[in-house]
């Protein structure tokens, strides 16, 4: 299910809620929603973009609008990359910052049993990376952080990510720790539940590109295509690797 629910004139809630066996199709409506959001921002509206769930639990991210030559949306206050240590696909601890130091880092929160937006996002990123020159490719890291650590063991994540790109970094671990890392990024997560008989996982579907300054200066919503990413990544490399070191 995809829901977009206005709660004030310029505030929009966007989230993806999935129930195993009820594969919601996101590609069409999700893309249209993302385009409408970008279009509204382009008209000069100051929009508040947030993920699903309790707004008190997930502070909104304020956005000023899309950039003319990028498919992402500019954030008025850059988001800080979490200094987060979880379990990697090898079963050993991995620190998000240290594992991606010096690279443009694309962070996505999702889960491997997702029927729609998660595999689509990973596939689009992998396809875009294959279009880049090797020198560009080595300067980019894609990090998948599970929102369903109960089923997404290191082995499961490793196998799933390998179907897209074996260089993708997968992280799993304590759910409370994952949720706490997502919260300041404006990405709301809800603990998986099975109250309706289906195993339902709800999560925000944004991709955050953190530069070498460990900041995300843009946010990408669902609906960005592989071609869009292929066009943007070289530009993001130039932009996000010239903002200095960590502060």
Automatic annotation (TrEMBL):
Keyword Metal-binding on entry: yes
Domain Thioredoxin positions: 75-238
Disulfide bridge map: 114-118
GO molecular function: metal ion binding
PANTHER family per record: ELECTRON TRANSPORT PROTIN SCO1/SENC FAMILY MEMBER (PTHR12151), LINALOOL DEHYDRATASE_ISOMERASE DOMAIN-CONTAINING PROTEIN (PTHR12151:SF25)
Protein known as: SCO family protein
Protein keywords: Copper, Disulfide bond, Metal-binding
InterPro entries to which the protein is assigned, alphabetical: SCO1/SenC (IPR003782), Thioredoxin-like_sf (IPR036249), Thioredoxin_domain (IPR013766)
Binding site for Cu cation: 114, 118, 203
Record family assignment: Belongs to the SCO1/2 family.
